[in-house]
Amino acid sequence: MKIGLARVSSVGQNLERQIIALKEYGCEKIFEEKQSGTKAEGRKVLREWIDFLRENDEAVVTRIDRCSRSVLDLQLIVKELESKGVTFAATEQSIDTKTPEGKCFLNMLSVFSEFETSIRHERQMSGIKANAHKFKGRGQTIDIERIKELKEEGLGATAIGKKMGIDRTSVYRLLKKVEA
Fold first, then answer.
1. pTM of this prediction exceeds 0.90
2. Is 135 strand, coil or helix?
């Protein structure tokens, strides 16, 4: 049986294209995940997909980065699948662990996938560092004067918070700031 995994990194992204491709490939069941693929740790749907697979099944993704962007995680996933008698395939890449060529290509592409993630992170950090001077935070958004007025009227932090629609811990923090 062919079992698919469709994954996007965030809730706002769409799985539809992957689901169509997996159905066209012949997947009878498709697991859908909206979570980063940088690490396998904590990915509940990935774990459910692996646990669902049985001997002679084929684990299918559209591209290997849909399964994992970490070389080590991908290798561990494929090793676990192989130990269960499950093969791994990617519909948009020449990957099928039934063949030595497919296994070789899988390992090569996983290295490039992790490299791409690292480069993207490096560029992101560089951009943040270069533009840090432009950002000064969001500033004070809670009216401290109003908090002081309500406190002087005899209201406690919880009552002030309810009246202003803010958490009482914010009231405590700001009162401490004003008193200092």
1. no
2. coil
Q: Which of 34-43, 75-84, 135-144, 156-165 has the weakest average pLDDT?
A: 135-144
Give just the sign of the alpha carbon dihedral 165, 167, 168, 174.
Answer: negative
The mean-pLDDT minimum among 86-95, 132-141, 159-168 falls in: 132-141
Number of residues in the chain: 180
**Residue of 9, 68, 113, 170 with catalytic role:** 9
Where helices occur in 35-156 by DSSP H, the ranges are: 44-52, 71-83, 100-131, 144-152
| 95-96/87-90 β-pairing | antiparallel
Which of 161, 163, 162 has the alpha carbon at shortest distance from 175?
161
Tell me if residue 110 is catalytic. Answer: no
